[in-house]
# Entry
Amino acid sequence: MSASASTEALPTRWVPRVGLLPAIGLFLVLLVLVWLGVNLVKEPSAFAATFLDGLTLGLVYGLVALGYSLVYGILELINFAHGDVFMLGSAISFGVATNWFSLHDTNSLGKLIPALIATLAMAMIVCACLNATIEFVAYRPLRSAPRLAPLITAIGMSFFLQNVGLRFIGSAPVSVPNILSHKAVFSIGGHEYRWYQLIVGVSTLPVLFGLVYLVQQTRQGKAMRATAQDQDAAAMMGINVNRTISFTFFIAGALAGVAGLLYAIYTTNIAYDQGFTLGLIAFTAAVLGGIGNLPGAVLGAVLIGLIQQFNEGLSWHAPGSDWTQSIVFSILILILVFRPEGLLGERTPEGG
Amino acid sequence: MTYPSGTEGGFDARALWRQQRDRWHHLPERTRTTIVLVVQVLIVLLLLPWWWGFAVLLAIFFALYWIPEDLAVPLGTRKLRVRAFVTPLVALALAILYPYVRDHIDSLPGVGPWPQMDTAVIMTVYAMMAVGLNIVVGYAGLLDLGYVAFYAVGAYTAAWFASVQFAKQNIHFGSVGVGATVPGIHISVWILLILAGIVTAFIGVVIGLPTLRLRGDYLAIVTLGFGEILPQVARNGDNLGGFNLTNGPNGITPIDPPGFGKTLHDATGGALPDNYLALADRNKAYFYTGVVLLAITVFASLRLRDSRLGRAWIAIREDEIAAAAMGIPLMRTKTWAYASGAFFGGVAGAFFASFKSSTFPNDFSFNISAFILSMVILGGMGNVWGVIVGGAVLAYLNQEGLANIGAKLGIADVPLYASGIFGAILVIMMLLRPAGLLPSARVRAELEEGVHDQPLYDASG
Amino acid sequence: MSRRLFLGALAAIAVILALVAAGCGGSKKSSSTTTGGGGGGGGGGNASALPASSCSPIYYEGSGKPEFIFASDLPLQGSGRTQTVQMTEAIKFILKQHNFKAGDHTVGYQSCDDATAQAGKWASEKCSANANAYANNKSVIGVIGTFNSGCAEIEIPILNRAPDGPIGMISPANTYVGLTHAGPGTAAGEPDKYYPTGKRNYIRIVAADDYQGAADATLAKQLGLKKVYILNDKEAYGQGVATDFKNSVSKLGLTVAGFSAWNGKAASYEGIATKIKQTGADGVFLGGLICENGGKLVKDLRAGLGANVKLLAPDGFTPISAVVQGAGQAAEDMTVSVAGQPNENLGATGKKFVKDFGATQSSGQVDPYSSYAAQAAEVLLTAIENSDGTRAGVSDQLFKTDVSDGILGAFKINAEGDTNANPVTIYSIKGGKQTTLKVITPPTSLVKAA
# Structure
């Protein structure tokens, strides 16, 4: 009762107050929705096609974003090198698929499926080991140094790996032959959605579910979450912190391998600097969804993919491809200003 | 001096390192002194027949090294430490002599010829940017991955007000070498250097205000975002609602040269050049200008560091919570760090643009931000002298050093992998010598003892 | 003191290591003869070399030391490397044919690189550094270059103001209009702002973008296109040629469905394809460079637009082998325009060059730009021969160029430095190989509108 008395003494507290920042944020979101609505009405088929393209692209981004989110969740480190591990994943997949198996969409399923699985396994193992090695060499000795230190080694590693890619791929983008069928699944108003897009997009979902299961349900996942919360306490509970962190990097590397293969299949082009560009976008996605939150990373990535394709594909008052990069990074900045914990993230004292 | 517990396990190069160091420290001081002296003399003597220029330079630095740290001369009521003012004076003297001796000294050992004059100019520019970034990263501990944005703003400010870009205007003020009928805005480059600094500092504040509340690595990402957005704005800026602001991908060329004008030229008996471009040896003039600007930057940077503000930056870097508890306004202090760092970035950018006589959106990629950051890390965060060395060395390597080394080793591809080499340098430095080549004592202590950099937000933010 | 002693010891070790490394690198006094700025006597066969950091050693096999040197200024890194390296080979080939002589003067050649590894393409600071090096080295009598128009914007004014100058520049590849003359697509103050002394010193033997834009527009009309969408890569060259194309097609009465950019770093261009499809365009012009992820762009456009929409590309999409490599099947049927005659239409001199020079190349193929580089070398050597042996003299002679039977056929250079030979060859990609579709010489009225 006394509590209610005190609230009555301060009646203004109960008036719903909307701060200036959330109001602006809400307004911006509304504007985007109106813009999408008008475009949907004006060009429904283009809207649907762009939506599907954006969804697929976003899911591919999501695979890379998961790797960032996973590592950030446990070490609070932006692993800049992740994008470049992903790029090497693409390069390895390309090398294995074309040089060892000479994969092509004309291959029979009997050959295609085992060869793809072998390629995938190869890319995953190499990237996983690479990523764990990077952690061992470049991040572990700096575990208790100020935050800037591992961030800087991460940037250095990123440049280094990029040049490794440059050595193998060359400075010009390389065309990957069509590995999955480019025939249309269905067509909306003349815009075709193709098998390879469908397969690549759908493939990301089991990876996400598997990952969420791993983190939420398994013993190892529990160890990861405990380490993320408090390394010292986790160590006291008998968790081998170093091994857990290594494991996390291993998994993140394997994810980069999967992403590398799917990206090579999806874009049919690989370049030595794809990791940096895509890494930035993926990191933005991870922040957008709430960094450290796995479904959030995929959600953020899908949103970024959609925004990108809507911006470039829609006609009514779209800023167009001239501004894509600026829009993506403006979103990053706006999110960090308005909602630093991201869409699905929890409000932590550190995030906000 | 113990290392923190985090070094258990893993690839521990530092353990081996420490072991060797301890061994050395167990030798008696007299032995150590003798060893060092003998080694130094031997090096100089060995080098003398082949690379006498380099040998002399080394001998000068070795001589400086032997000035006792606590030697001081009384100056009025204060005592002036000899080493603290002899070192910069010697460095300045060497820089002033450089254009005259360059053609007469032998090559650099293992690398090739000494830096050409235009490379030397670029070295001063990058050293200036590195000193500017050092204020943000080294003093205040705010990681800025988009420093190139400040360089861009400075460069475009110079380009707007000293070229024919705005051909509808016809404003001339103190510019040299430009006919009065030439359209566009032409303002003296000297004024523009300051203007560019102010504009850039303002932009720094605008970028900083919404973002400085964020903690370290988020801030890094936001600055990176700005570093990606600004070049695209420059690229698309040839048609902003029909207005041609930046001339888009064509860039703005040419940009007016600096110069002191005829009056000053005659008044000083020709000591100050009328127009840099009219000189037969213009790179020398640009070089001296660069050195003077760098000297001003260094002086300002050192004064800032020792000021009340500078001490506040260092306090924030070391422990935000304690700093806030002692009454340091976090937001305002951080914003000042941003603005000061941006100021020097802008000045350097404007000078560089005038030197290159061009600005293109392509000049401002993330690589440049990372490159300037590498200079700060390599040289030693927080230590201005280290940062200058880092800036000069990396700029030299990028401009001609790597190509020379590659040519010498017979590998044409060395420059191709420049960014990879710089990346490896970053990693190795952080692992072996995290405080840089010439570290500031404070930063080293922080790195070795570990700090509590738990983030905290300004009460008012 | 102990810490400092320790540091001193470290420094000593580092220096010793550096010395050992230097010894291994085989460095001796001989390597230090290079003088970049300031040095170098003007005549008497005593040319001093341009700095080794961006230029190759002097190519000279005559007696003694050459009297003069000329440089080529091309981006030798990044994806265009095979093309530009072959251009330098072609220049060497011509110089050797002339026995390293231009009239009475002995001439050496250095190939300079205006690209940095970081950029993977030309870099502004490298261009300005190179140009300053040419200006300061009195042995440099002329420059062949640049490849990229943006780089030329920086170098022309520096060489224009060079001491004893201006230094003549002859470009085998710059196509940006504003370098030599004003037009609807050029910026304020162009071209005068590039010539601060008021004297011209820059010629090009390749037709400017307004010709190429007009030729591609003519092609679009001849192909029966009604509505074209124009993309550009937001680089100086790409945006320039795309603008010229836009102006020309409008003049020819075609509809411009849209004008937008593609980002060379993007992962996907499906959205752009969807947008173009929505506009109902039956042709797309790709104003830009193949190295800006052009292969992926062609793939996505082909996939999104179907086989019936024509893809037209300017000479930024050369070498055509790179297009085929980057886009694979999707490149089938797209057209690439290249200023000048195709190799098979060249006159006797040109054919002989292609045959003889091709024999020296391991690929056996001669890129069209190699013919341009060779022709540029011929023109420059002739200018040196006819000159009084000064920079200004060579520069003046360049504008008197009148070739009757050159590698590129017959052409003249006008007072603005442009060539009067303006055919544009349209190549079409068939079965992964370039085939000559037609040669278009656009009418002057159309060019003026571009």
